[in-house]
Amino acid sequence: TAGKQPKIVSSGSLVAGGLDFDGTDDELLFTGSGLDIFKNIGYGQAFSVVKSRETGTASRRILDVTTPATVSRYLLGDSSSTSSSFRLGGRRLDANSFSQETSSSSHSNAETLITGFLNWVDANLFLYQNGALVASDSSFQTSGNTSNTSSGSSSGIGISAFNGTMKEIVIYNTNKSTSRTGIEANINAAYSIY
After folding, report:
1. Which end of the chain is flanked by fewer CB atoms within 10 Å, N or C?
2. pTM for the full model?
3. CB within 8 A of 187, min separation 6: which ones?
4. What phi, psi does 179 have (nearest 5°)?
5. DSSP classification of residue 146
6. In this structure, are residues 125 and 137 in contact, taking their beta carbons and an 8 Å threshold?
């Protein structure tokens, strides 16, 4: 729906910060095969360059991949418990309880490279902010691949009224742990974030 898409142009000029999500109803939903991105896999890893305008606590999401029952399998977004902070969470199996970790460092409404690794097969979670580890869990869920269930129709980027800009998001369903620092260095070289 055109009215719910984030802006890339405002008043005839390109938005300087990337896609601008208005915090009201903008979103980019997955459709078709995009709904299977985290189906029956061992890794959910994403790198994103964002600037959140959120100053309090919120449930706004950079990336959210849900099951058809709209329970988050992978969620990277603003923290619902700590002001001006990001969080990463999810579940491996459809029936599992949601588990999450919150960044130990605030984002201060500055442009940020936020990297979220849910390594389901290894039962661990890692959240990086500007290349630094800011949250981890070495007993995240139980080890193994995710459920063999496709994602739900509410899966997407910038959903739950994300309020801010997004310049880039790169999503992997393979293990990029050994390449993480190189990928982050390339992204930082392009945007000069930190």
Report:
1. N
2. 0.94
3. 47, 49, 113, 168, 170, 193
4. -100, -5
5. P
6. yes
